[in-house]
Amino acid sequence: MAIYKYYSIIEWCEEDQTFNVDFPDLENVFTDGDTLHEAITMAQDVLGSALAYNEDANILFNPPSPAKDIHLPEGANLIQITVDTDDFRDVE
Protein backbone atom coordinates (compact mmCIF):
# COMPACT_ATOMS: atom_id res chain seq x y z
CA MET A 1 0.00 0.00 0.00
CA ALA A 2 2.77 2.40 0.83
CA ILE A 3 6.48 3.02 1.12
CA TYR A 4 7.74 3.80 4.61
CA LYS A 5 11.05 5.05 5.96
CA TYR A 6 11.79 4.47 9.63
CA TYR A 7 15.02 4.93 11.54
CA SER A 8 16.49 1.94 13.28
CA ILE A 9 19.09 1.89 16.01
CA ILE A 10 21.68 -0.81 15.43
CA GLU A 11 24.07 -1.72 18.24
CA TRP A 12 26.71 -4.39 18.57
CA CYS A 13 25.99 -6.62 21.58
CA GLU A 14 29.22 -8.08 22.86
CA GLU A 15 27.39 -10.54 25.12
CA ASP A 16 25.30 -12.09 22.32
CA GLN A 17 27.84 -11.41 19.55
CA THR A 18 25.06 -9.96 17.37
CA PHE A 19 23.95 -6.64 15.96
CA ASN A 20 20.69 -5.76 17.73
CA VAL A 21 18.13 -3.67 15.85
CA ASP A 22 15.40 -1.58 17.45
CA PHE A 23 12.87 0.81 15.93
CA PRO A 24 12.39 3.59 18.51
CA ASP A 25 9.10 4.73 16.96
CA LEU A 26 7.50 1.27 16.91
CA GLU A 27 6.68 -0.83 19.94
CA ASN A 28 7.72 -4.49 19.82
CA VAL A 29 9.47 -4.20 16.44
CA PHE A 30 13.05 -5.45 16.79
CA THR A 31 15.43 -8.06 15.43
CA ASP A 32 19.11 -8.92 15.20
CA GLY A 33 21.75 -10.36 12.90
CA ASP A 34 25.16 -11.95 13.08
CA THR A 35 26.59 -9.37 10.67
CA LEU A 36 25.66 -5.76 9.98
CA HIS A 37 24.39 -6.74 6.53
CA GLU A 38 22.22 -9.50 8.02
CA ALA A 39 20.91 -7.13 10.70
CA ILE A 40 19.82 -4.60 8.05
CA THR A 41 18.18 -7.34 5.97
CA MET A 42 16.35 -8.63 9.04
CA ALA A 43 15.34 -5.05 9.90
CA GLN A 44 13.75 -4.64 6.48
CA ASP A 45 11.87 -7.90 6.92
CA VAL A 46 10.55 -7.20 10.42
CA LEU A 47 9.61 -3.60 9.59
CA GLY A 48 7.83 -4.52 6.36
CA SER A 49 5.96 -7.40 7.98
CA ALA A 50 4.87 -5.33 10.99
CA LEU A 51 3.68 -2.38 8.93
CA ALA A 52 1.86 -4.57 6.39
CA TYR A 53 0.10 -6.38 9.23
CA ASN A 54 -0.90 -3.09 10.86
CA GLU A 55 -2.21 -1.73 7.55
CA ASP A 56 -4.28 -4.86 6.92
CA ALA A 57 -5.68 -4.85 10.47
CA ASN A 58 -6.31 -1.07 10.40
CA ILE A 59 -4.03 -0.64 13.41
CA LEU A 60 -2.56 2.83 13.74
CA PHE A 61 1.18 3.10 14.23
CA ASN A 62 3.47 5.96 15.12
CA PRO A 63 4.76 8.07 12.25
CA PRO A 64 8.53 8.15 11.83
CA SER A 65 10.45 10.65 13.93
CA PRO A 66 13.03 13.00 12.45
CA ALA A 67 16.57 11.78 13.05
CA LYS A 68 17.33 14.80 15.27
CA ASP A 69 14.64 13.66 17.75
CA ILE A 70 16.00 10.14 18.23
CA HIS A 71 18.27 9.46 21.19
CA LEU A 72 21.22 7.43 19.96
CA PRO A 73 23.13 5.46 22.59
CA GLU A 74 26.91 5.78 22.51
CA GLY A 75 28.42 3.43 19.94
CA ALA A 76 25.09 2.79 18.17
CA ASN A 77 24.28 3.59 14.55
CA LEU A 78 21.16 5.25 13.20
CA ILE A 79 20.17 3.63 9.91
CA GLN A 80 17.09 4.48 7.88
CA ILE A 81 15.21 1.40 6.71
CA THR A 82 12.90 1.74 3.69
CA VAL A 83 10.17 -0.79 2.88
CA ASP A 84 7.23 -1.10 0.52
CA THR A 85 4.50 -2.95 2.41
CA ASP A 86 3.22 -4.49 -0.83
CA ASP A 87 6.41 -6.56 -0.88
CA PHE A 88 5.31 -8.22 2.37
CA ARG A 89 1.92 -9.52 1.31
CA ASP A 90 1.05 -12.82 -0.29
CA VAL A 91 0.24 -12.34 -3.94
CA GLU A 92 -2.19 -14.79 -5.49
Describe the structure.
With about 90 residues, this protein is an alpha+beta fold. A hairpin with a 4-residue loop joins β1 and β2 (about 20). The protein has one helix and four strands. It has a four-stranded antiparallel beta sheet, with helices on one face.
Largest sheet: 4 strands, antiparallel
Record the strand order, biggest sheet: 3-2-1-4
Number of domains: 1
* Overall strand count: 4
Total count of helical runs of at least 4 residues: 1
Radius of gyration from the alpha-carbon trace, in angstroms: 13 Å
CATH topology: Double Stranded RNA Binding Domain
The CATH C-level class name: Alpha Beta
Report the CATH architecture.
2-Layer Sandwich
- Unreliable sequence segments: none
> Helical residue percent?
10-25%
The class by helix and strand makeup works out as alpha+beta
Mean pLDDT: 94
The ordered H/E elements are EEEHE
Classify the beta-strand content into a percent band: 25-35%
Précis, in short:
The protein is of the alpha+beta class and 92 residues long. The protein is 23% helix and 30% strand.
